[in-house]
Amino acid sequence: MDPRGAGPSLLTKLGVGALTCNSAVAAYRSRRDPASLAFVAAAYAALLLLLRSLRGLERAPPVGWGRGRVKAAVWALSTLLTAMFASRVAPLVPAAVGVAVWVMAVATAGGGFWAFFVAA
To answer: Where are the transmembrane segments (predicted)?
Structure first.
Protein backbone atom coordinates (compact mmCIF):
# COMPACT_ATOMS: atom_id res chain seq x y z
CA MET A 1 0.00 0.00 0.00
CA ASP A 2 1.08 3.55 -0.60
CA PRO A 3 2.71 5.05 2.53
CA ARG A 4 0.23 7.91 2.44
CA GLY A 5 -2.66 5.46 2.39
CA ALA A 6 -3.87 6.77 -0.97
CA GLY A 7 -3.99 3.42 -2.73
CA PRO A 8 -1.98 0.50 -3.97
CA SER A 9 1.72 1.05 -4.57
CA LEU A 10 3.39 0.69 -7.95
CA LEU A 11 4.82 -2.67 -6.88
CA THR A 12 1.35 -3.92 -5.98
CA LYS A 13 -0.02 -2.77 -9.32
CA LEU A 14 2.83 -4.51 -11.16
CA GLY A 15 2.21 -7.70 -9.19
CA VAL A 16 -1.50 -7.70 -9.96
CA GLY A 17 -0.71 -6.96 -13.60
CA ALA A 18 1.69 -9.92 -13.76
CA LEU A 19 -0.92 -12.13 -12.04
CA THR A 20 -3.55 -11.01 -14.54
CA CYS A 21 -1.29 -11.68 -17.54
CA ASN A 22 -0.26 -15.07 -16.18
CA SER A 23 -3.88 -16.00 -15.49
CA ALA A 24 -4.94 -14.88 -18.97
CA VAL A 25 -2.24 -17.06 -20.57
CA ALA A 26 -3.20 -20.02 -18.35
CA ALA A 27 -6.88 -19.54 -19.22
CA TYR A 28 -6.04 -19.41 -22.93
CA ARG A 29 -4.02 -22.62 -22.68
CA SER A 30 -6.86 -24.28 -20.71
CA ARG A 31 -9.64 -23.18 -23.06
CA ARG A 32 -10.36 -26.75 -24.19
CA ASP A 33 -10.36 -28.19 -20.65
CA PRO A 34 -13.31 -26.82 -18.64
CA ALA A 35 -11.99 -28.16 -15.31
CA SER A 36 -8.62 -26.49 -15.75
CA LEU A 37 -10.24 -23.27 -16.93
CA ALA A 38 -12.48 -23.26 -13.86
CA PHE A 39 -9.44 -23.84 -11.66
CA VAL A 40 -7.59 -20.89 -13.22
CA ALA A 41 -10.61 -18.61 -12.87
CA ALA A 42 -11.28 -19.66 -9.28
CA ALA A 43 -7.64 -19.28 -8.26
CA TYR A 44 -7.42 -15.83 -9.87
CA ALA A 45 -10.61 -14.69 -8.16
CA ALA A 46 -9.51 -16.07 -4.80
CA LEU A 47 -6.11 -14.36 -5.08
CA LEU A 48 -7.73 -11.02 -5.89
CA LEU A 49 -10.14 -11.42 -2.97
CA LEU A 50 -7.23 -12.34 -0.71
CA LEU A 51 -5.33 -9.21 -1.73
CA ARG A 52 -8.41 -7.09 -1.05
CA SER A 53 -8.93 -8.78 2.31
CA LEU A 54 -5.30 -8.23 3.29
CA ARG A 55 -5.72 -4.55 2.52
CA GLY A 56 -8.84 -4.54 4.69
CA LEU A 57 -6.87 -6.22 7.46
CA GLU A 58 -4.24 -3.47 7.27
CA ARG A 59 -6.93 -0.83 7.64
CA ALA A 60 -9.05 -2.54 10.31
CA PRO A 61 -8.88 -1.24 13.88
CA PRO A 62 -6.60 -3.30 16.16
CA VAL A 63 -9.52 -4.71 18.15
CA GLY A 64 -13.11 -5.31 17.20
CA TRP A 65 -15.65 -7.42 15.39
CA GLY A 66 -14.70 -6.08 11.96
CA ARG A 67 -11.07 -7.14 12.32
CA GLY A 68 -12.11 -10.66 13.31
CA ARG A 69 -14.31 -10.97 10.24
CA VAL A 70 -11.50 -9.80 7.96
CA LYS A 71 -9.06 -12.22 9.62
CA ALA A 72 -11.56 -15.03 9.07
CA ALA A 73 -11.85 -14.08 5.38
CA VAL A 74 -8.06 -13.99 4.98
CA TRP A 75 -7.70 -17.38 6.65
CA ALA A 76 -10.54 -18.93 4.62
CA LEU A 77 -9.18 -17.66 1.31
CA SER A 78 -5.62 -18.73 2.05
CA THR A 79 -6.87 -22.16 3.14
CA LEU A 80 -8.96 -22.43 -0.03
CA LEU A 81 -5.95 -21.62 -2.20
CA THR A 82 -3.75 -24.06 -0.29
CA ALA A 83 -6.30 -26.85 -0.77
CA MET A 84 -6.81 -25.98 -4.43
CA PHE A 85 -3.12 -26.15 -5.24
CA ALA A 86 -2.59 -29.29 -3.14
CA SER A 87 -5.44 -30.96 -5.02
CA ARG A 88 -3.65 -30.24 -8.31
CA VAL A 89 -0.17 -31.28 -7.16
CA ALA A 90 -0.93 -34.42 -5.13
CA PRO A 91 -2.18 -36.57 -8.06
CA LEU A 92 0.94 -35.77 -10.10
CA VAL A 93 3.47 -37.14 -7.63
CA PRO A 94 4.01 -40.59 -6.06
CA ALA A 95 1.46 -41.56 -3.42
CA ALA A 96 3.77 -41.00 -0.44
CA VAL A 97 4.68 -37.54 -1.68
CA GLY A 98 1.00 -36.81 -2.34
CA VAL A 99 0.22 -37.67 1.27
CA ALA A 100 3.05 -35.36 2.36
CA VAL A 101 1.59 -32.56 0.21
CA TRP A 102 -1.79 -32.92 1.91
CA VAL A 103 -0.20 -33.15 5.38
CA MET A 104 1.69 -29.91 4.70
CA ALA A 105 -1.49 -28.26 3.39
CA VAL A 106 -3.43 -29.24 6.51
CA ALA A 107 -0.54 -28.14 8.74
CA THR A 108 -0.39 -24.80 6.96
CA ALA A 109 -4.13 -24.23 7.36
CA GLY A 110 -4.00 -25.31 11.00
CA GLY A 111 -0.98 -23.13 11.70
CA GLY A 112 -2.69 -20.16 10.09
CA PHE A 113 -5.79 -20.73 12.20
CA TRP A 114 -3.71 -20.97 15.34
CA ALA A 115 -1.75 -17.81 14.49
CA PHE A 116 -4.84 -15.76 13.60
CA PHE A 117 -7.34 -16.89 16.20
CA VAL A 118 -5.68 -18.76 19.08
CA ALA A 119 -2.34 -17.05 19.64
CA ALA A 120 -3.55 -13.55 18.78
So the answer is: 35-51, 72-93, 99-119
